[in-house]
Design a protein that fits this description.
Blueprint: E1 5-7, E2 10-21, E3 24-34, E4 37-41, H1 48-60, E5 68-72, H2 84-90, E6 95-97, H3 102-106, H4 109-125, H5 133-144, E7 155-157, E8 163-164, E9 167-171, E10 180-184, E11 189-193, H6 217-228, E12 235-238, H7 247-270, H8 276-284, H9 287-290, H10 292-308, E13 312-317, E14 320-325
This protein binds zinc ion.
């Protein structure tokens, strides 16, 4: 059992699942209690083992699933929504998420087809179709398997400055386009999902907007951090790693990391690594073949940010995008 956080008449019960997940430790969700109303913020992963862990943790706090009265999702990723269907099977309760999460949570075939088409074209344009062929194939299989993770609930949309009880929703896109953070002003509590985690290793993953255009995710991430720096945050309840209180330092570190990474990309382009694949190999070596989706997301995201900042420009050469510094 983790320590319970208390402030005024409110409590937070952390549910920290100790597991290595990608580059991160722990999968976290939180029970937030105010005026005897229990809100689940995020919902872990979808597995039998996790369900046992989740219910055991609730029991150590003297709680059970039937006590949960609403769920708020910080974003649509699978490690944040796992228990939603299992909870609403037992009890119909409201589930809140950002409007842009809706079709991603519903996983409609139309959305999945758009997603496959977007990544296929993107990887081709950036000359990495071959490296990413197996990911595209996997996405096509999920489409035929009817995707087992769709959320079977009506989602109530919340966006910037909406309140769910005492929790104010802040739009903090970057890691994903539908990322929201939840702020309890009275206690200085900030629930960040994956927008900000203790070690600052969270990634601004590439994604597309309603026009099927590449989103400026790194720029969004940087702006989201700057937005939160205006708030008086005492404790951060993050989606991975530990609960932490040095918000100002972590926020600053994240900004510095983003600025360092964009400079690093520009330097590599100066050295003649003018394509996405050459940049990925120069910066990440073998990791490109071990975790290609993440590495290419990182490189494409940063090279696009460098372009937005006017540090580099893209040039079409033999039907492929290449870069040069300005
Ligand atoms: Zn996550």
């Amino acid at each position: 059992m983790c320590a319970v956080f208390e402030c005024k008449a409110k409590k937070v019960y952390p549910i920290i699942y100790p597991i290595r997940y990608g580059q991160m430790n722990n999968i976290n969700c939180y029970l937030y209690e105010h005026q005897n109303k229990l809100t689940l913020i995020d919902a872990g992963i979808d597995s039998a083992e996790y369900q046992i862990f989740f219910e055991e943790q609730l029991a150590t706090y003297g709680l059970n699933i039937m006590d949960i009265e609403q769920i708020i999702l910080t974003h649509h990723h699978v490690d944040h929504i796992g228990m939603v269907n299992k909870i609403i099977e037992k009890k119909q309760i409201p589930v809140f998420a950002h409007p842009l999460a809706l079709e991603r949570l519903a996983l409609t075939p139309a959305y999945q087809k758009t997603k496959i088409q977007f990544y296929q074209e993107l990887y081709e344009r950036y000359g990495c179709a071959e490296v990413m062929a197996s990911r595209i194939e996997k996405m096509q299989q999920t489409l035929h398997n009817d995707g087992g993770l769709r959320i079977q609930s009506v989602i109530e949309p919340i966006q910037a400055n909406d309140y769910v009880g005492e929790l104010k929703a802040l739009e903090t896109p970057g890691h994903s386009l539908d990322s929201i953070s939840l702020y309890d002003e009275e206690c200085g509590w900030l629930f960040t999902g994956d927008f900000m985690i203790e070690k600052g290793t969270t990634n601004a993953l590439i994604d597309f907007d309603s026009e099927k255009s590449l989103l400026p995710t790194v720029l969004q991430q940087r702006q989201s951090i700057e937005q939160c720096q205006k708030y008086s945050v005492s404790t951060v309840f993050a989606g991975h790693e530990a609960v932490f209180d040095q918000f100002a330092e972590v926020a600053q570190l994240n900004i510095e990391k983003i600025d360092y990474k964009v400079q690093r990309i520009v330097k590599q382009i100066d050295k003649g690594n003018e394509t996405v694949l050459k940049l990925a190999s120069a910066l990440y070596g073998d990791l490109l073949h071990k975790i290609p989706t993440l590495i290419l997301s990182e490189v494409i995201g940063y090279v696009y940010f460098a372009e937005i900042l006017g540090f580099v420009e893209s040039v079409q050469r033999d039907g492929q995008i290449t870069f040069r510094s300005v």
